[in-house]
Amino acid sequence: MKLIIATIKPFKLEEVREALTEIGVRGMMVTEIKGFGSQSGHTEIYRGAEYAVNFVPKVKLEIAVSASMVDQVIEAITKTARTGKIGDGKIFVLDIQQAVRVRTGETNEDAL
Questions:
Q1: Which of 43, 46, 79, 102 is such that its CA lies 20 to 30 A from the CA of 87?
Q2: Number of domains the chain is built from
Q3: PTM O-UMP-tyrosine: at which residues (predicted)?
Q4: What is the CATH number of the domain that holds 88?
C-alpha cells in the first residue's frame, strides 16, 4: 500500500478528482494549504501599496492506494494538474505500514 501526497493549484482540484474517480480511486483527503517552492511568492499591489505574498494557496491531496495503482494515479494527477507554468505542484509517494477501517475493523488493502 502507498500514500500519495500531491500539491496542486486550487482551480485544478475538480478536474483531478474526476480523473482519479475514472481510474477507480475511491477516496481521498483534501486540505487547503499555503506554501512556496520555486516561485517563492510574489508581490501584489493593493490600494496603491505593494506587498509581498510569501505563501501561495495550494491544495494538498492524500490518496491511499494499492501499490499496483501508483503509476496510474501519478499519471492521472500530472496529466490533469499540469498547466506548464511554475507552481504546478509536487507528488510524493510513501509506504503505508498498516491501514484500518474504523467502522468495520477491516485492515490493510481491504480497508482502502
A1: 46
A2: 1
A3: 51
A4: 3.30.70.120
